[in-house]
Design goal:
By secondary structure, this protein is of the alpha+beta class. Helices cover about 65% and strands about 15% of the residues. The chain folds into two domains: about 100 residues, no CATH class; about 55 residues. Strands 1, 2, 3, 4 and 5 form a five-stranded mixed beta sheet that branches. β4 and β5 form a beta hairpin. α1 packs antiparallel against α5 and α2 packs antiparallel against α5. The longest helix is centred in the middle third of the chain and has 30 residues. The two termini are about 15 Å apart.
């Protein structure tokens, strides 16, 4: 695909399918405005509305129920955090009684606080799915934004990187893509 920017009505070199009678393929030019408008429609169809994100996550959870590992991880997390908090409290008590010096007190508290942070950052598979789904939704929204404000070169580069083949059907006026 090449953009011939001879005028404001530049064209893209794309494969055209004529769907009258037998299917024939040939390379030809399509007005840039038509091609880009159809490509933007395609990107908008890929978008997920924010209110539908929770529904998708619930559907994902229903299709793949919580595993024992998720339940075990959550139980382990809660127990480990509670244990670290008890260790911190015991360290405070030992320091208050004068049984450990200030440096030892700070070292023990820091170790336990780091352990709590470590356990809080571990995620279950459900949380991972939610994060991945959010990232995908954001990536598609970014595609639309880049397409709407991008230069002609940016648009062509994005189309080339996203799809291996882009075919425009003149008979139906549809854009066909494949990887």
């Amino acid at each position: 695909m090449q953009n011939y920017a001879a005028s404001n009505r530049a064209r893209w070199d794309v494969t055209i399918v004529i769907s009258r009678g037998s299917v024939r393929q040939r390379k030809t030019m399509v007005l840039r405005e038509i091609y880009e408008a159809d490509f933007l429609k395609l990107i908008r169809l890929l978008e997920v509305k924010p209110e539908a994100l929770n529904d998708l996550l619930q559907l994902s959870t229903q299709l793949t129920p919580k595993t024992e590992d998720d339940k075990d991880l959550e139980t382990q997390r809660q127990e480990a955090i509670a244990l670290c908090r008890r260790h911190i409290q015991a360290t405070v008590d030992l320091n208050g009684d004068g049984r450990i010096n200030r440096e030892e007190y700070l070292r023990r508290v820091e170790i336990n606080e780091r352990e709590i942070v470590s356990w809080n950052t571990r995620t279950t598979s459900t949380e991972e799915r939610a994060i991945q789904l959010s990232m995908c939704v954001q990536a598609v929204a970014n595609l639309r934004t880049i397409w709407e404000v991008g230069s002609d070169e940016d648009k062509q580069g994005m189309a080339r990187h996203l799809f291996e083949y882009i075919t425009y059907d003149l008979g139906t006026g549809k854009l066909w893509i494949s990887n």
